[in-house]
Design a protein that fits this description.
Layout (H helix, E strand, L loop, with lengths): L7 H5 L28 E12 L2 E3 L12 E11 L4 E8 L3 E5 L8 E2 L2 E2 L1 E15 L5 E19 L9 E24 L4 E8 L2 E13 L12 E11 L2 E11 L2 E10 L5 E2 L2 H8 L12 E2 L4 E11 L4 E10 L6 E2 L7 E13 L2 E12 L2 E5 L2 E7 L2 E13 L1
Parallel strand pairs: 20-23
Antiparallel strand pairs: 1-3, 1-25, 2-24, 3-4, 4-8, 5-8, 6-7, 8-9, 9-10, 10-11, 10-12, 11-14, 12-13, 14-15, 15-18, 16-17, 18-19, 19-21, 21-22, 22-25, 23-24
Length: 396
C-alpha cells in the first residue's frame, strides 16, 4: 500500500465535517482531530443543520415542524513548540437546542404564540501534549465553557398551576471550568492513528428570571396575573469519552471510525420556581420532575472510508448511528437517536491547505414526548434532518 502518498489533507478528510443531530443536546461531537495533526496547523469550519420534526399532540392535532435550523462554528490552532511538546487551542459549540412550535390549535401553543426554547454553549479547550517518540502523544488541559438558555412554554401541555398556559425562563450566561485529557498512538507509514479522549462534566449556576401567567377562563390575555421571580438554575453539562481510529486499507484509501459516549443519564434543567410549581401540584409521581431531563446515556458510532481520487481531490462516505438518550423525551427535542449517511469532498490546491465540504442525511428515531406535568403529550414519527459542513485547513 502506497500510503505515504496520502497527503495530510487526505487524512483530515476522514474527520466528521457536518453538523450533528445527536442525542439530547449533543451537537459537534467535540473532536480534537486538529490537535493531532503533524506540525503547525490551523482550521475553521461551519456546520448547518436543517431538521424537519413534526408530530401530533395527545389530542391528535398536528404540531407542524418544530425543529428550528441552527449553525455551529468551530476553529482550532495547533503549534508544535518543540519536537516533544505541542500546544492547541480549540473552539466549538458542543451542546445546544433550538425548538420553535408555530402558533396553532395544538397543545404547545396559546394566545397566538408557540412554545420555543434555545440553549447554547461555547467551549475553549487548551491542550498541551507530550510526544516521547514518533508514535505516542499524551495530552491534557483546561476547558472553559459558557452556557445560557431561554424557554417560552405556551399551551395546555404545560399546565403547571391549574389554568397556567404561559411560562418564561431566561437563564443568563454563565461561565465555568472543566478539563480534558487523553492519549493517541500513530504509525504514519500505514496511516494508522488512534486516540482516546475524556472530557469532564462542567457545573453551571445560571442566574434566572422566571415568569408565570395564570389565564382565567377563556381569556387570551398574555401576561395577565403574571408573577416574576429571580433565582438560579443549576445545570451540569455531561462528561464524555471519544475514541477515534483510522488506518490504511489499500493504496490511497483509509478506513475510519469514531465511537462517542456521553453521560446524559441524570441530566436535568430545573429552574427553581418551575420545580416548586410542579411539586406543589401535590402529585407524588411528579415530585422532583424537571423542565428538561434525560434518562439514558448516549452512544454514537460513525464509520466510513476516505479515498484520494487525484492529486487534488479526495472523497469520503460514512454511515452513523446514535442511540438516543431515552424514550419518551422532552417536547423541546422530540427525537430518539438516528441513522445517517454522509458524503464529503475535499479540494487541496496545494499540499499545505484544503477546502472541505460535506452533506449528511439523518433518519431520526420515533419517540413519544413528555412534559414535567405529564408523561405523554404527543408522538413524533418519520422525521429527518440534513446537515451541511464547510471547513478550511492550513498547515504552516
Amino acid at each position: 500500500m502506497k500510503l505515504k502518498t496520502l497527503s495530510v489533507a487526505m487524512i483530515l478528510a476522514t474527520a466528521p465535517m457536518t453538523g450533528a443531530f445527536a442525542a439530547a443536546m449533543d451537537r459537534t461531537g467535540q473532536s480534537i482531530s486538529a490537535f493531532l495533526q503533524p506540525g503547525n496547523y490551523a482550521e475553521a469550519g461551519l456546520s448547518v443543520l436543517d431538521a424537519d420534526v413534526s408530530g401530533k399532540d395527545k389530542n391528535g392535532v398536528n404540531t407542524g415542524d418544530m425543529a428550528a435550523s441552527y449553525h455551529s462554528a468551530s476553529a482550532a490552532l495547533k503549534i508544535q513548540a518543540t519536537d516533544n511538546i505541542s500546544v492547541g487551542l480549540l473552539f466549538d459549540q458542543p451542546f445546544g437546542a433550538k425548538a420553535e412550535y408555530a402558533a396553532g390549535d395544538h397543545a404547545f401553543s396559546f394566545g397566538g404564540e408557540g412554545t420555543s426554547a434555545e440553549v447554547t454553549t461555547e467551549n475553549l479547550t487548551l491542550l498541551v501534549g507530550f510526544q516521547p517518540n514518533a508514535n505516542w502523544n499524551f495530552y491534557a488541559g483546561p476547558v472553559w465553557q459558557q452556557a445560557k438558555g431561554e424557554v417560552h412554554l405556551r399551551g395546555s401541555a404545560y399546565s403547571l398551576l391549574g389554568q397556567t398556559r404561559y411560562y418564561d425562563a431566561d437563564m443568563k450566561n454563565d461561565d465555568a471550568w472543566g478539563w480534558a485529557a487523553g492519549f493517541a498512538y500513530q504509525i504514519p507509514e500505514i496511516a494508522l492513528k488512534a486516540s482516546l479522549t475524556y472530557r469532564s462534566e462542567i457545573k453551571h449556576n445560571l442566574n434566572s428570571t422566571e415568569t408565570f401567567a395564570k389565564i382565567p377562563g377563556n381569556l387570551i390575555v398574555q401576561g395577565l396575573g403574571a408573577t416574576y421571580t429571580e433565582g438560579s438554575t443549576a445545570v451540569t453539562t455531561p462528561q464524555s469519552v471519544n475514541f477515534d481510529f483510522q488506518t490504511g486499507v489499500a493504496s490511497n484509501t483509509v478506513a475510519f471510525a469514531n465511537i462517542r459516549w456521553v453521560n446524559w443519564d441524570g441530566f436535568a434543567i430545573r429552574p427553581n420556581d418551575f420545580g416548586q410549581a410542579i411539586d406543589n401540584l401535590g402529585n407524588p409521581a411528579l415530585i422532583g420532575a424537571n423542565l428538561v431531563e434525560y434518562n439514558k446515556d448516549q452512544w454514537t458510532i460513525n464509520a466510513g472510508v476516505g479515498r484520494k481520487l487525484t492529486e487534488k481531490w479526495s472523497g469520503t462516505v460514512s454511515v452513523g448511528w446514535d442511540s438516543g438518550a431515552g424514550d419518551p423525551v422532552t417536547t423541546l427535542g422530540p427525537t430518539e437517536g438516528y441513522w445517517s449517511l454522509g458524503l464529503g469532498a475535499q479540494f487541496s490546491p496545494a499540499t499545505n491547505y484544503f477546502i472541505q465540504g460535506g452533506v449528511k442525511y439523518f433518519w431520526l428515531g420515533d419517540t413519544d414526548a413528555l412534559t414535567a406535568s405529564s408523561p405523554y403529550e404527543g408522538s413524533f414519527k418519520d422525521n429527518h434532518a440534513i446537515g451541511y459542513g464547510l471547513k478550511f485547513g492550513y498547515k504552516f
